[in-house]
Amino acid sequence: VAASFLVYLIPEDTTMKITVSDFGEHLDITKERALMESSSIDESFKKLMENDMNQDEYIRIAEVSSSQILTLIIELKDSGATQEWTESYVNYIGALKKLNEMITETIVVANLMDSDDNSNSINEIIDKIHQLKTESLDLTKKSDAARP
Q1: DSSP letter, residue 116
Q2: pLDDT of res. 21
Q3: For the chain, which residues score pLDDT lower than 70?
Q4: CA 119 to CA 94: how far, in whole Å?
Q5: Helical residues (DSSP H) of the chain, grouped into ranges
Q6: Beta carbons within 10 angstroms of residue 124's beta carbon
Q7: What is residue 5's predicted lDDT score, i.e. its pLDDT?
Q8: Are 63 and 100 in contact (CB under 8 A)?
Q9: pLDDT at res. 12
């Protein structure tokens, strides 16, 4: 009598692991991806403010961009940067967090645009958006300066 059976091996640890061998290149690629998201948001927000895009469409775009930025943050945190790259990575993670805060504030503006009596609030938030963008750029410069 012959017996036939299959054994399935299911790995215990199913978390995704990123292996980075060139931390400078990894950071450069991440910066390019973030720049694409930032440019897309800037362009879409400009269209929103010029009434060339409706609020719902903008919010969908912004939510996707925010999700992409969060993914980049996670990738950088999980990359296992060596000690010599840690300061550069930490600063760039900070820059991405500021960018994500900025995106969140643009969503707030989109939600407030339905009402005319919110123009003062919108102007205050736009000032905050510019401040967050400046802070993000400053952290990016710090990241560049901290490269080994």
Answers
A1: G
A2: 75
A3: 1-19, 116
A4: 30
A5: 23-49, 55-77, 83-112, 119-145
A6: 11
A7: 57
A8: no
A9: 64
CA distances from 102 to 26, 113, 118 (A): 24, 17, 19
Q: From start to end of 73-134, where are the E strands?
A: none
Dump pLDDT digits (tens) for 31-57: 999 999 999 999 999 999 999 999 999
Dist CA 56 CA 29 (whole Å): 30
pTM summary value:
0.84
Show the tokens assigned to 102: 């900025």
Report how far residue 34's alpha carbon sits from residue 17's, in angstroms, rounded to the nearest whole number.
21
C-alpha 113/C-alpha 122 separation (Å) is: 8
Which DSSP helix (H) or strand (E) runs through 1? none
Cβ atoms of residues 96 and 143 within 8 Å:
no
125: Cβ contacts below 8 Å, ≥ 6 apart: 105, 108, 109, 112
Token digits of residue 29: 């690629």
> Contact, 90 vs 139, CB < 8 A?
no
